[in-house]
Specification:
Layout (H helix, E strand, L loop, with lengths): L38 E2 L2 E2 L5 H27 L8 H20 L11 H21 L5 H9 L2 H12 L5 H24 L5 H28 L3 H23 L2 H10 L1 H29 L1 H22 L8
Antiparallel strand pairs: 1-2
């Protein structure tokens, strides 16, 4: 196949594949107007400079995910709710699907661009990372969970190497190692002062990180290859994920008790979950924009900086033991 369509020659030891943007004289898919178009929550940011796009996305991530983190801990502070982390994820996926469907109605092109098989894989990984992350809060306190998620940069870098063939310099690797040392130090301190530090929680959040190692890179590759929109990505990946979780809860019998509990506390469960999902949807829209523009590694680095602020707010608003370490 000709190199102008994005495929370069093969050698005997390794395949090299690169994706190129067709020139104005080459034929593009008729439903893709421009590979440079970027919309976040229906707002076209394409005409802005790259630094401006970056800082707008960063501001959106910090603003909405700080509120998201507060609401997440607030929900799990409701007495008796901790065993229902997977049900919260189900409700969250349902809200995300509805929000994505509403946003998609305001776009001119409503056709799906990314293949269904890719969405099925992204949905499975999203269910893993969000479901296991929510469930881990039943065993870990919130700052410990956040610190573990800060280590997400490392698996994302590893996934970038194997999935997209990326290479990282010494500065990137050093930053990742420093983050790991901070994770170990904080976890050791938490194991001494917090009674709810639990090996099961550590295993759950570690599995969530494994899913994170793949999902960001798969999203980046799919969105750049097919020029998929943020609303399309959210709608299809989370609606398929909703079906996965619903089937799982029905199989293990976990749906009935969760519905019964939430029916007794509708405001503190469904009410909080609505605003929790709304801020999360706004936040993920900006994260997907960062992934599409600057790559998965930059997006994860930004969300890691946001998590540092979340930890500070968590200690300010929710009483927890705190040591110098």
């Amino acid at each position: 196949m000709s190199a102008k369509y994005g495929l370069v020659g093969y050698n005997s030891s390794r395949k090299h594949i690169s994706i190129s943007i067709p020139s104005s004289t080459e034929v593009m898919s008729p439903h893709i107007k421009s590979v440079e178009e970027l919309r976040v929550l229906g707002i076209n940011l394409s005409n802005l400079s790259a630094p401006t796009q970056f800082f707008i996305c960063v501001a959106g991530v910090f603003l909405f995910y700080l509120v998201y983190g507060y609401l997440q801990e607030l929900i799990f502070s409701v007495e008796g709710f901790r065993p229902f982390g997977w049900y919260l994820t189900l409700v969250q996926f349902g809200f995300y699907s509805m929000f994505g469907l509403v946003e998609l109605q305001f776009t001119q092109d409503k056709r799906r661009r990314i293949p269904g098989k890719t969405y099925m894989m992204i949905a499975f990984l999203t269910v893993g990372t969000m479901g296991l992350s929510n469930t881990s809060l039943g065993y870990l306190n919130y700052p410990t969970q956040v610190i573990f998620k800060c280590c997400k940069l490392i698996p994302v870098m590893i996934g970038g190497v194997f999935i997209q063939g990326k290479r990282y310099n010494l500065t990137d690797v050093s930053a990742a190692l420093c983050m790991s040392l901070g994770l170990i130090w904080f976890t050791l301190a938490d194991s001494k002062v917090a009674p709810n530090f639990n090996v099961t929680g550590v295993m759950l959040i570690s599995l969530a990180l494994c899913a994170d190692a793949v999902i960001g890179n798969v999203q980046e590759k799919a969105m750049k290859l097919h020029n998929g929109s943020n609303s399309e990505m959210v709608l299809y990946s989370y609606s398929i994920g909703f079906i996965y979780i619903l089937g799982g809860l029905l199989c293990v019998g976990g749906l009935g008790p969760a519905v019964a509990f939430c029916s007794e506390h509708p405001v503190k469960t469904y009410g909080y979950a609505f605003f929790f999902s709304l801020t999360g949807y706004f936040g993920i829209s900006f994260v997907l924009a960062l992934i599409k523009l600057f790559g998965a590694l930059v997006a994860v680095t930004v969300t890691t900086g946001r998590k540092a602020m979340t930890i500070v707010l968590s200690f300010m608003f929710f009483t927890k033991p705190f040591t110098f370490q």
